[in-house]
Amino acid sequence: MTLVHKGKRWVEILHLACFSIVLISEAHSQNLLNNHSFEQIDSNVRQDCSIGVGYLDALSAWEGFNTVDFVHQNFPFTNRSGSQKIAPHTGKSMIGLYLIDCGEGWLPEYLFQQLSVPVREGKKYRLSFYLHFRSRDGFYPRKISFNLSDENPCIALAAGKLKGGKVDIEIEPSKRVDDYWLFFSKEFVAASDANYIIAGSFETQPKTFRKKGKDLEKGIYVFIDDVELVALEYVAPIPDVSAILTEQTANQPDTMASKIVVSRQDTLATVSPLTDFGALPTVSFEYNSFSINPYYQKILSETAANLLRRGCPIVVIGHTDNTGSDEHNEQLAYKRARAVADFLMSKSLPKERITIVSQGSKTPLASGEDDFSRSMNRRVEITQKCN
Fold it and tell me: Does residue 200 share a domain with residue 71?
């Protein structure tokens, strides 16, 4: 009986482990792109930098630069596949664009959208999509690229100054075919934070492979369908704490003074009571970490410059979520506050002006027990007193 009981118990544990793995996989596999298969149509949408050709203005979430084509079976637009009669990979819709101008007079075209969740520097992602070439074109591209940028693509592309990290997808010899949809996938580490993804060719003189045949066109026109961008590891959300702080301030004018009770203090300067301090940016942290994300390093660099000019004393207050012991949380909160203080001092802020405070999990910003609420509580607050 004991062996049977233990056997059943192990089966239950294995089932639970497998279920947990599935949940984690699903959490990480969210597509960061809206309308990834181009099936959602919104007649009220009007894009602001695409030329009104090819019905792209009816496509939800996506925009185009120059004359990108939205090919849908319900729209009376000529499918540029010609006699090939290329159908979408899935559904009723696909995108067509001139990837490279090889002398046909067509400008290179770009497809882009604002991501549903920003890409974070240093995190691992997977980009995948389906591509179909035309048999009537005389060239294959050596690669197709996706740019991950924090700039508005309409403005950046028009100015010819698009910045950001590029993900290059090489077109291998086995995929230089025109007869069927080709699947491409690449894993990469984001080179910078980004809010937009842009597909196209970003070389001033792109390299190509010439096809064999007669009477072929010089441009390279491609069809794209089913695009996915997936995070392969947990990415802590960047909380919008301003709305919560505004709500708290409206309900309790002395929220900061009433909630902060110092449990550990490393005093580098003599400062006045916390009720006199004004709020500064809040820095969020990933689970059980005191490393400062590059997104917040940029914000802290600007904050340090402003604090240097003002010359006020500063308090750096560390917080955690409620998932650890009180002792662990108090130490972790201190490490987070210390990391922020060290970063500010690396930007020439005098240590004599800084006080470090650990709050542990005692003063949560959000009261929920879900992952998002806990991510809001993993933070460091910076306050200052200016006479």
Answer: yes
Among all chains, which residue has been given the structure tokens 């506050």?
337
Both 209 and 282 in one domain: the answer is no
**Residues 266 and 363 sit within 8 Å (Cβ to Cβ):** no
- Please say whether the beta carbons of 70 and 38 come within 8 A: yes
Cα dihedral 51, 182, 72, 222 sign: positive
Distance CA 35, CA 127 (A): 15
Of the pLDDT bands very low, low, confident and very high (cuts 50, 70, 90), residue 204 is low
Residue range 313-329: average pLDDT? 91
- Which of 231, 260, 295 terminates a domain? The answer is 231
Number of domains in the chain: 2
Which single residue is written with the structure tokens 């004004």?
A: 278
Q: What is the CA radius of gyration of the chain?
A: 27
Q: pTM of whole model > 0.90?
A: no
214/145 same-domain check: yes
Amino acid (one-letter) located at 68: V
DSSP state of 322: S
Q: Is the same domain home to 327 and 201?
A: no
Task: Specify which residues 146 forms β-bridges with.
Answer: 167, 199
Both tokens of residue 196? 């937009």
Instruction: Give the rounded percent of residues in the chain with a pLDDT score beyond 70.
Output: 71
**How many Cβ atoms sit within 10 Å of the Cβ of residue 147?**
23
Strands (E), the chain: 63-65, 69-72, 93-100, 110-119, 124-133, 139-141, 143-149, 165-170, 182-189, 194-200, 208-210, 220-231, 264-267, 278-284, 314-318, 354-358, 379-384
Rounded mean pLDDT, 308-335: 89
Asked whether residue 37 carries a pLDDT value surpassing 90, the answer given is yes
Average pLDDT of span 5-22: 47
- Express each pLDDT in 85-134 by its tens digit: 888 999 989 999 888 765 555 567 899 998 888 898 888 999 999 999 98
Domain with 212, as residue range(s), is 28-231
| Token pair 């390093």 in the structure block, residue | 297
